[in-house]
Design goal:
The chain is mainly alpha-helical. It is about 70% helix and about 5% strand. It contains 10 helices and 2 strands, in the order αααββααααααα. The radius of gyration is 19 Å and the shape is globular.
């Protein structure tokens, strides 16, 4: 493990961030057992802060209990469906609100994200695509200026990123989802909240439909 613990910061928070990033970057893949002792030894700390960090990760549902101890959430089909359905409701409304509040600079940044993601998509770098797409969605959510809505979305954010990572790493997609991103940007630039909400919902529904179709195809192969 490359990361090291810094003495001046709370150990359990640092462990939480290290393990969270490893899960979201798939360095700890779905279903992987979390070895508390090995983690503590690799970081040169006691098991207590590691245990507290794992409790936090369990609250985020990034790790879940199993008969073999804590494992990285494997996100089965039903779990993925639930995550995407929550996103459809919450993120779509955030896009509606953001249409009235995003600055011109924010809108330019969103367009830049789409162009960057397209470049990495063409290079076949799914990890970078996920990072940029996550920044794209996060920026729209941040722009809604509704504290309670952002809090509700934040509760599911880690699972949303994990779902997105699993989808992109497991299945090859064409670039149509990026065209959808650009359509959302155009609606936001036009300050059309109705259209932005509609396009965001359709986009997330499309992501879910793609994932389910690939799972179905895999089950019959």
């Amino acid at each position: 493990m490359e990361q090291r613990i810094i003495k001046r910061e709370a150990y359990h928070i640092q462990v939480y961030e290290i393990v969270k990033n490893q899960i979201l970057n798939r360095k700890l893949p779905s279903g992987e057992k979390i070895n508390e002792n090995a983690l503590a030894q690799s970081l040169g700390i006691s098991r207590s802060p590691v245990r507290e960090a794992l409790r936090m990760l369990e609250q985020d549902e990034l790790v879940v209990p199993s008969s073999n101890g804590l494992i990285v959430n494997p996100l089965n089909v039903e779990n993925m469906k639930d995550v995407y359905e929550c996103r459809m409701v919450l993120e779509s409304y955030a896009a509606r609100l953001s249409a009235a509040t995003l600055s011109e600079e924010d809108l330019s940044q969103l367009e830049s994200y789409v162009n960057q993601a397209m470049s990495f998509h063409n290079m076949g770098d799914s990890e970078k695509v996920v990072q940029i797409n996550t920044a794209f969605h996060d920026s729209i959510i941040e722009g809604c200026h509704n504290t309670y809505l952002k809090t509700m979305i934040e509760r599911n954010r880690s699972l949303s990123v994990l779902a997105r990572t699993q989808e992109f790493s497991a299945y090859k997609r064409d670039a149509s989802y990026l065209t959808e991103h650009m359509d959302i940007v155009r609606a936001l630039q036009q300050r059309d909240g109705d259209l932005a909400e509609k396009l965001m919902r359709r986009h997330i529904q499309g992501d879910l439909a793609f994932y389910l179709s690939q799972v179905e195809k895999k089950s019959h192969s």
